[in-house]
Amino acid sequence: MNRETPSEWLPALNAANFQDVPIEAGEAGVFVGRFGHRVLSSVFQPIVSTVDGATVAHSARIRSMLNGQPEPLAEVFELTGPDELMLQLDRSARTLHALNYYPRARATWRLCLRVQARLVETVGRGHGRVFEAILARLGVPTKDVVIELPRHADEDPALYARALLSYRSRGYRVASDCLQAQDPLLTGGYEVIPDIVAIDHHGFPDLNALGSLVRLVRARGATALVQRIERLEHATLAVEAGADLLQGFYFGLPSVRAEEPDVPKALRVRAELSQEGMVR
Q1: Strands, DSSP E only, in 67-151?
Q2: Residue closest to 144 by CA, chosen among 170, 177, 176, 163
Q3: How much is the pTM?
Q4: How distant, in Å, are the alpha carbons of 27, 94, 127, 189, 225 from that of 161?
Q5: Which of 5, 101, 266, 270 is the most exposed place for a label (fewest CB within 10 A)?
Protein backbone atom coordinates (compact mmCIF):
# COMPACT_ATOMS: atom_id res chain seq x y z
CA MET A 1 0.00 0.00 0.00
CA ASN A 2 1.37 3.40 -0.96
CA ARG A 3 2.02 5.83 1.89
CA GLU A 4 0.31 9.21 1.67
CA THR A 5 2.60 12.09 0.79
CA PRO A 6 2.80 15.12 3.11
CA SER A 7 0.98 17.24 0.53
CA GLU A 8 -1.98 14.89 0.92
CA TRP A 9 -2.22 14.85 4.72
CA LEU A 10 -0.78 18.23 5.69
CA PRO A 11 -4.01 20.21 5.11
CA ALA A 12 -5.93 18.01 7.55
CA LEU A 13 -3.05 18.10 10.06
CA ASN A 14 -2.91 21.91 9.87
CA ALA A 15 -6.66 22.17 10.36
CA ALA A 16 -6.63 19.85 13.36
CA ASN A 17 -3.43 20.93 15.12
CA PHE A 18 -1.77 23.98 13.57
CA GLN A 19 -4.52 26.46 12.66
CA ASP A 20 -2.35 29.43 13.72
CA VAL A 21 1.00 27.98 12.62
CA PRO A 22 0.31 26.06 9.39
CA ILE A 23 3.01 24.28 7.43
CA GLU A 24 3.21 24.40 3.66
CA ALA A 25 5.50 23.21 0.89
CA GLY A 26 7.96 25.89 -0.17
CA GLU A 27 10.49 26.05 -2.97
CA ALA A 28 12.59 23.04 -3.99
CA GLY A 29 10.65 20.68 -1.75
CA VAL A 30 11.56 22.53 1.46
CA PHE A 31 8.70 23.02 3.91
CA VAL A 32 8.08 26.31 5.75
CA GLY A 33 5.79 27.42 8.56
CA ARG A 34 3.56 30.48 8.70
CA PHE A 35 3.11 32.34 11.99
CA GLY A 36 1.43 35.69 11.47
CA HIS A 37 3.81 37.74 9.33
CA ARG A 38 6.64 35.30 10.06
CA VAL A 39 8.05 32.61 7.81
CA LEU A 40 9.63 29.75 9.76
CA SER A 41 12.25 27.43 8.29
CA SER A 42 14.52 24.61 9.47
CA VAL A 43 18.29 24.50 9.83
CA PHE A 44 20.36 21.51 10.90
CA GLN A 45 23.79 21.22 12.52
CA PRO A 46 25.72 17.92 12.50
CA ILE A 47 26.75 16.00 15.62
CA VAL A 48 29.78 13.75 15.15
CA SER A 49 31.24 10.80 17.00
CA THR A 50 34.70 11.05 18.53
CA VAL A 51 35.33 7.41 17.64
CA ASP A 52 35.62 7.88 13.89
CA GLY A 53 34.31 11.35 13.06
CA ALA A 54 31.11 9.96 11.55
CA THR A 55 27.95 12.01 11.63
CA VAL A 56 25.45 10.40 14.00
CA ALA A 57 22.74 13.07 14.28
CA HIS A 58 21.66 16.60 13.48
CA SER A 59 20.29 19.19 15.88
CA ALA A 60 17.40 21.13 14.36
CA ARG A 61 16.61 24.78 15.00
CA ILE A 62 13.99 27.23 13.75
CA ARG A 63 14.92 30.26 11.67
CA SER A 64 12.35 33.05 11.61
CA MET A 65 11.90 35.84 9.07
CA LEU A 66 9.57 38.66 10.11
CA ASN A 67 8.43 40.81 7.18
CA GLY A 68 11.48 39.59 5.26
CA GLN A 69 13.98 40.32 8.06
CA PRO A 70 15.75 37.79 10.32
CA GLU A 71 14.29 37.66 13.82
CA PRO A 72 15.93 36.42 17.06
CA LEU A 73 14.53 32.98 17.82
CA ALA A 74 13.78 33.77 21.46
CA GLU A 75 11.30 36.43 20.42
CA VAL A 76 9.24 33.93 18.42
CA PHE A 77 8.44 31.84 21.48
CA GLU A 78 8.25 34.76 23.91
CA LEU A 79 5.47 36.37 21.84
CA THR A 80 3.29 33.31 21.48
CA GLY A 81 0.82 34.36 24.18
CA PRO A 82 -1.63 31.70 25.47
CA ASP A 83 -0.40 28.20 26.26
CA GLU A 84 -2.47 26.67 23.45
CA LEU A 85 -0.75 28.89 20.87
CA MET A 86 2.65 28.01 22.33
CA LEU A 87 1.79 24.30 22.04
CA GLN A 88 0.84 24.80 18.41
CA LEU A 89 4.07 26.62 17.65
CA ASP A 90 6.26 24.08 19.42
CA ARG A 91 4.65 21.06 17.76
CA SER A 92 4.46 22.78 14.39
CA ALA A 93 8.19 23.58 14.58
CA ARG A 94 9.11 19.97 15.36
CA THR A 95 6.85 18.72 12.57
CA LEU A 96 8.46 21.20 10.18
CA HIS A 97 11.92 19.88 11.09
CA ALA A 98 10.84 16.27 10.61
CA LEU A 99 9.34 17.05 7.20
CA ASN A 100 12.57 18.74 6.09
CA TYR A 101 14.85 16.05 7.56
CA TYR A 102 13.13 12.89 6.37
CA PRO A 103 13.39 11.02 4.06
CA ARG A 104 16.65 12.72 3.01
CA ALA A 105 18.43 11.63 6.19
CA ARG A 106 20.65 8.58 6.12
CA ALA A 107 19.48 5.54 8.05
CA THR A 108 22.26 5.95 10.63
CA TRP A 109 21.35 9.55 11.48
CA ARG A 110 19.14 10.75 14.32
CA LEU A 111 17.16 13.98 14.54
CA CYS A 112 17.47 16.10 17.71
CA LEU A 113 14.46 18.30 18.42
CA ARG A 114 14.10 20.89 21.17
CA VAL A 115 10.90 21.34 23.14
CA GLN A 116 10.04 24.54 24.98
CA ALA A 117 9.98 24.72 28.77
CA ARG A 118 6.38 25.99 28.73
CA LEU A 119 5.32 22.85 26.88
CA VAL A 120 6.86 20.67 29.59
CA GLU A 121 5.02 22.66 32.26
CA THR A 122 1.70 22.85 30.37
CA VAL A 123 1.41 19.24 29.24
CA GLY A 124 0.93 17.37 32.49
CA ARG A 125 1.21 13.87 31.07
CA GLY A 126 1.49 12.09 27.74
CA HIS A 127 4.52 14.00 26.46
CA GLY A 128 5.37 12.96 22.92
CA ARG A 129 2.02 11.29 22.14
CA VAL A 130 0.80 13.82 19.56
CA PHE A 131 4.20 14.04 17.88
CA GLU A 132 4.50 10.24 17.79
CA ALA A 133 1.40 10.10 15.58
CA ILE A 134 2.90 12.74 13.28
CA LEU A 135 6.17 10.81 12.98
CA ALA A 136 4.17 7.70 12.11
CA ARG A 137 2.79 9.58 9.09
CA LEU A 138 6.38 9.95 7.91
CA GLY A 139 7.26 6.37 8.68
CA VAL A 140 9.76 7.49 11.33
CA PRO A 141 10.07 5.46 14.57
CA THR A 142 10.42 7.46 17.78
CA LYS A 143 13.76 5.73 18.47
CA ASP A 144 15.23 7.80 15.63
CA VAL A 145 14.35 11.06 17.40
CA VAL A 146 16.15 12.68 20.34
CA ILE A 147 14.06 15.10 22.39
CA GLU A 148 16.12 17.98 23.80
CA LEU A 149 14.46 18.56 27.16
CA PRO A 150 15.07 22.09 28.51
CA ARG A 151 16.78 22.81 31.81
CA HIS A 152 16.69 25.86 34.06
CA ALA A 153 18.12 26.67 37.48
CA ASP A 154 14.85 26.54 39.45
CA GLU A 155 13.22 23.58 37.70
CA ASP A 156 11.20 20.97 39.56
CA PRO A 157 13.11 17.65 39.51
CA ALA A 158 9.84 15.71 39.75
CA LEU A 159 8.33 17.55 36.77
CA TYR A 160 11.52 17.04 34.79
CA ALA A 161 11.56 13.32 35.59
CA ARG A 162 7.90 12.92 34.63
CA ALA A 163 8.48 14.53 31.25
CA LEU A 164 11.67 12.54 30.61
CA LEU A 165 10.07 9.20 31.50
CA SER A 166 7.01 10.03 29.40
CA TYR A 167 9.13 10.65 26.30
CA ARG A 168 11.30 7.62 27.01
CA SER A 169 8.26 5.35 27.45
CA ARG A 170 7.30 6.14 23.86
CA GLY A 171 10.72 5.21 22.52
CA TYR A 172 12.34 8.64 22.22
CA ARG A 173 15.85 9.26 23.47
CA VAL A 174 16.26 12.35 25.63
CA ALA A 175 19.06 14.93 25.83
CA SER A 176 19.53 17.82 28.26
CA ASP A 177 22.08 20.48 29.08
CA CYS A 178 24.41 20.33 32.06
CA LEU A 179 24.00 23.69 33.82
CA GLN A 180 27.05 23.65 36.10
CA ALA A 181 29.93 21.51 37.34
CA GLN A 182 27.93 20.40 40.39
CA ASP A 183 24.65 20.04 38.55
CA PRO A 184 22.25 18.04 40.76
CA LEU A 185 21.22 16.15 37.64
CA LEU A 186 24.61 14.42 37.85
CA THR A 187 25.33 14.51 41.58
CA GLY A 188 22.31 12.58 42.79
CA GLY A 189 19.62 15.26 43.05
CA TYR A 190 17.53 13.67 40.28
CA GLU A 191 16.12 10.15 40.15
CA VAL A 192 16.49 9.86 36.38
CA ILE A 193 18.93 11.40 33.93
CA PRO A 194 18.75 11.81 30.15
CA ASP A 195 20.41 9.54 27.63
CA ILE A 196 22.66 12.38 26.43
CA VAL A 197 24.06 15.21 28.55
CA ALA A 198 25.25 18.26 26.61
CA ILE A 199 28.16 20.29 27.95
CA ASP A 200 29.17 23.76 26.77
CA HIS A 201 32.94 23.53 26.72
CA HIS A 202 33.25 27.32 27.10
CA GLY A 203 32.13 26.88 30.71
CA PHE A 204 34.91 24.34 31.32
CA PRO A 205 37.93 25.68 29.43
CA ASP A 206 40.62 23.43 30.94
CA LEU A 207 41.09 19.71 30.49
CA ASN A 208 40.83 18.78 34.16
CA ALA A 209 37.49 20.51 34.69
CA LEU A 210 35.98 19.22 31.44
CA GLY A 211 37.39 15.74 31.97
CA SER A 212 35.94 15.52 35.48
CA LEU A 213 32.51 16.48 34.21
CA VAL A 214 32.63 14.06 31.26
CA ARG A 215 33.58 11.24 33.63
CA LEU A 216 30.67 12.15 35.89
CA VAL A 217 28.27 12.10 32.95
CA ARG A 218 29.50 8.71 31.82
CA ALA A 219 29.47 7.33 35.36
CA ARG A 220 25.73 8.09 35.48
CA GLY A 221 25.28 6.03 32.31
CA ALA A 222 24.76 8.94 29.91
CA THR A 223 26.51 9.89 26.68
CA ALA A 224 28.66 13.04 26.88
CA LEU A 225 28.08 15.59 24.09
CA VAL A 226 30.42 18.59 24.09
CA GLN A 227 29.03 21.61 22.24
CA ARG A 228 30.31 24.89 20.78
CA ILE A 229 33.31 23.25 19.14
CA GLU A 230 34.51 26.11 16.96
CA ARG A 231 38.18 25.31 16.35
CA LEU A 232 40.48 22.30 16.22
CA GLU A 233 41.85 23.06 19.69
CA HIS A 234 38.30 22.93 21.10
CA ALA A 235 37.79 19.50 19.52
CA THR A 236 41.17 18.34 20.79
CA LEU A 237 40.30 19.38 24.35
CA ALA A 238 36.94 17.60 24.19
CA VAL A 239 38.43 14.38 22.81
CA GLU A 240 41.18 14.40 25.45
CA ALA A 241 38.48 14.86 28.08
CA GLY A 242 36.75 11.69 26.88
CA ALA A 243 33.70 13.16 25.14
CA ASP A 244 31.56 10.79 23.10
CA LEU A 245 29.99 13.33 20.72
CA LEU A 246 30.94 16.78 19.40
CA GLN A 247 28.90 19.63 17.93
CA GLY A 248 29.83 23.11 16.75
CA PHE A 249 30.85 25.38 13.90
CA TYR A 250 34.09 23.43 13.40
CA PHE A 251 32.01 20.59 11.97
CA GLY A 252 29.50 22.70 10.10
CA LEU A 253 27.28 25.76 10.26
CA PRO A 254 23.52 25.25 10.64
CA SER A 255 22.25 24.49 7.13
CA VAL A 256 18.88 24.17 5.40
CA ARG A 257 19.97 20.75 4.17
CA ALA A 258 21.20 18.19 6.67
CA GLU A 259 24.74 17.45 5.56
CA GLU A 260 27.70 15.28 6.47
CA PRO A 261 30.71 17.39 7.42
CA ASP A 262 34.06 16.93 5.75
CA VAL A 263 35.05 13.51 7.09
CA PRO A 264 38.84 14.01 6.80
CA LYS A 265 38.47 17.22 8.82
CA ALA A 266 36.45 15.45 11.49
CA LEU A 267 38.81 12.49 11.61
CA ARG A 268 41.84 14.77 11.90
CA VAL A 269 40.99 15.40 15.55
CA ARG A 270 41.21 11.73 16.41
CA ALA A 271 44.15 11.04 14.11
CA GLU A 272 46.34 13.80 15.53
CA LEU A 273 45.65 12.72 19.07
CA SER A 274 46.30 9.07 18.18
CA GLN A 275 49.73 10.01 16.86
CA GLU A 276 50.52 11.56 20.20
CA GLY A 277 49.26 8.51 22.12
CA MET A 278 46.39 10.40 23.71
CA VAL A 279 43.54 8.26 22.42
CA ARG A 280 42.87 4.64 23.37
Answers
A1: 69-71, 110-114, 145-148
A2: 170
A3: 0.90
A4: 41, 21, 12, 11, 20
A5: 5
Nearest-angstrom CA–CA distance, 136 and 68: 33
Count of other CB atoms within 10 angstroms of residue 265:
15
- For position 222, what pLDDT does the model report? 96
Topology of domain 6-273, CATH: TIM Barrel (3.20.20)
Q: Which residues of 35-61 are buried (b: 16+ CB within 10 A; e: fewer)?
A: beebbbbbbbbbbbbbeebbbbbbbbb
Cα end-to-end distance, the chain, whole Å: 49
**From CA 10, how far away is CA 39, in angstroms rounded?**
17
Angle between helices 263-275 and 232-240 (to 10 degrees): 50
Which three-class secondary structure state does DSSP give residue 54?
Answer: coil
> Can you tell me the distance from the alpha carbon of 174 to that of 148, in angstroms, rounded to the nearest whole number?
6
Task: Please give the DSSP secondary-structure letter assigned to residue 255.
Answer: B
Query: pLDDT tens digits for 72-91?
Result: 766 677 666 677 888 888 89
Question: Which tens digit of pLDDT belongs to each residue from 244-266?
Answer: 999 999 998 899 988 887 755 55
* Burial label, 218 (beta-carbon count in 10 A; 0-12, 13-18, 19+): middle
Checking phi first, is residue 269 left (phi over 0); if not, alpha (psi -120 to 50) or beta?
alpha
